[in-house]
Every structure is written in structure tokens, then in C-alpha cells.
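Journal club prep — side note

Before the paper discussion, L.F. wants everyone to see what a predicted structure for a comparable chain looks like in C-alpha cell form. Sequence:
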Amino acid sequence: MAFDSSGGFLLPNGAMRAPDAAWVRRSRLAKLTRDEKRGFLPLCPDFVVELRSESDRLDALQAKMDEYIANGAQLGWLIDPIEQVVYIYRPQQPIQRLVHPAVISGDPVLSGFTLNLTGLWEPLE
């Protein structure tokens, strides 16, 4: 199930987070009680996306992405349209830094899902 920025999560470490976009396997949601499904869900999403805005500090967003991975996320994308960079986070793997990618893939967590970024980037000079 996909969530937008109004979807909130209570991570295992106690932090309350609302990523710009998130995805949680239905099998994990099915284990929650009706009361747990109201308000912030008591789990970490499987996949999270944060989109940097002009007012965001990059280091703060990177720390948030580290926190998601430490709390169980299997994939995270930090998309920085200011620098035209995407940081890809996965458990126990180095952070991947892609400069001005045209497309990024959610495989294997979101098999077959791709995001075309060409419309997001300003032309490089």
C-alpha cells in the first residue's frame, strides 16, 4: 500500500515520521489491529522517499534516511532536485549516489517500479 506525506509512522525507535512517500507490504499491514491502523502506523515502511526542498538541510534528510534504514526500511530514496542527485539507501550496503539520473528503479523491493526523473531536473549548464 502506498502512502503520501500525510501518512505517518511510529518507528520502532519511537520517532514519529511522515515521509514524502512510502510503501508498506499489505501482509505487514494485515497484522495491525484496527486501533493500530488509526493515526500513525506503528511500523517502519518498507520503502521511503524524501524529496529535498529549498528549506531542507541535506544533512538532516540524510540522517532521517539513515534512521529509516536502521528501523527496518528496505529501500530509501533521497531525491535532491537542488543538486540533481539521488541517494539510494539499502540495509547493510553503501549509500549509492546518482548524479542526474534519468530513471531510478525500485527493484527488488518494488519489482518493476521505476521513476522517471527527467521532468524534475533543471537543464544542466
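L.F.'s comment for the group: The first helix runs from residue 26 to 29. Keep this in mind when we get to the figures.
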